Amino acid sequence: MNSLERNGQRMKKILQIAGAYIGVIVGAGFASGQEVLQFFTAFGWYGLAGTVISTILFAFLGMHVLQLGHHMQTTSHKVVIYQICGKYIGFLVDIILTFFLFGVAVIMIAGSGSIFEQQFGISASLGNFILTLLVIVTLCLNVKKIISVISLITPYLFLLMFIIVGFSLFNSDLNINQMNAIANSQTAAASNWFVSAALYVSFNIVLAFSMLVVMGSQEKGIREISIGGLLGGLGLGILLFIINIGLFFNIDRVLTVDMPTLLLASEISPIVGILMSIALLGMIFNTAVGMLYTFTTRFIKPEKPSFKTMVVIVSLLAFASSFVGFTKLVNTLYPFTGYLGFALVIAIIVSWITWKRRGTLSSEG
Q: What are the transmembrane regions (predicted)?
């Protein structure tokens, strides 16, 4: 194999890792615009600064968690958690993180039912079951195939969001001062824009942590993993920025809807609305697959024969739990987990500083 082919394969692997990282994090709330509205748009122009802070944190933290998974060669987050948090704090974080993985999967399944019902007129319970079935089939594949599936939807979402935001900028009837005034009058997710940006990243790193560890352990090249993590973080930042801009310029119309980006898409054309619904379902599917895979690997190694049986049992339990309701689940689980994430983010940063001092990471590269 010549150098050109090798470089092509490396670039393909880097983009696949970056796409999978983005795909795991961009679930229902991110792609729908609801989380972006609360964590960024509500701060007006300061929300744009918040997206910059989030981009830097997503890139750095994603890169290092992938490196941790590569270094420790584990398919479970438990080993990494205990390594970076210590015995006692690690135990607490492990229990809460494991519960959160299952909880987010339940939320994703419930969210899929809401979209099926709202956009396609299919009952929510049937929508929940359709997604559960797709998740079970996907989880019975090997992990490299799962990463490939997760990364596929990302370019499609980028293209769609650029189209939606591009059109929405021209449909705004407000001037900058009016947009800022309306945005600042809304209830935000935190007391100020910087805390809100940090809280958003911490919540999402908890969401992605286990899958990033698994992804890092499956890849051979530390350089590809590191660049993939950085590019994934940059991609998340770009998505945050363009969604935030689109919502900010249409702040008067998006405040009263559950899925703001779906509203903007439907205003362009019913066809674009359907395409956006498919993208949202793809993002929900990505997150559900990532969460249930890493939840199951916490207890059973993927190569064991009983793994697939456990996948079916866990997925059906998540399906049954989804009938609690999408909104109720989100309001209960998400805020608590964001603050837990601060402890995990601090542990990741401390471990990076420690490893750099020892030369652990540089010796691998």
A: 14-31, 43-67, 88-110, 122-142, 149-170, 190-215, 227-251, 271-295, 307-327, 333-355
Helix (H, G, I), strand (E, B) or coil at 305: coil
pLDDT at residue 37 is higher than 60:
yes
332 band by pLDDT with thresholds 50, 70 and 90? low
Is the pLDDT reported for residue 142 higher than 80? Answer: no
Relative orientation angle of helices 45-72 and 3-25, to the nearest 10 degrees: 120
For residues 248-257, one letter each, b for 16 or more C-beta atoms within 10 angstroms of the residue's C-beta and e for the rest, the string is bbbbebbbeb
The pTM of this model reads 0.81
Amino acid at position 326, single letter? F
Helix (H) / strand (E) element for 184: namely: helix 176-184
Flag whether pLDDT at 242 surpasses 80: yes
C-alpha distances out from residue 72 to 80, 138, 196, 299, Å: 7, 26, 32, 17
Contact 271, 171 (CB under 8 A): no
Residues ≥6 apart with Cβ < 8 Å to 238: 55, 158
How many other C-beta atoms lie within 10 A of the C-beta of residue 134? 16
Which among 347, 287, 340 is positioned nearest to 65, based on CA atoms?
347
Residue with tokens 């799962």: 146
**What is the distance between the alpha carbons of residues 269 and 272, in angstroms, rounded to a whole number?**
5
> Distance between CA atoms of 201 and 30, rounded to whole angstroms?
12
Separation of CA 328 from chain center: 20
Q: Which pairs count as long-range contacts for 88-95, CB under 8 Å and 24+ apart, including other chains?
A: 89/343, 89/347, 93/340, 93/343, 93/344, 93/347
Is the Cβ–Cβ distance between 165 and 242 less than 8 Å? yes
Q: What type of residue is 246?
A: G
Residues 73-103 have pLDDT tens digits of 776 777 888 888 888 888 888 888 888 888 8
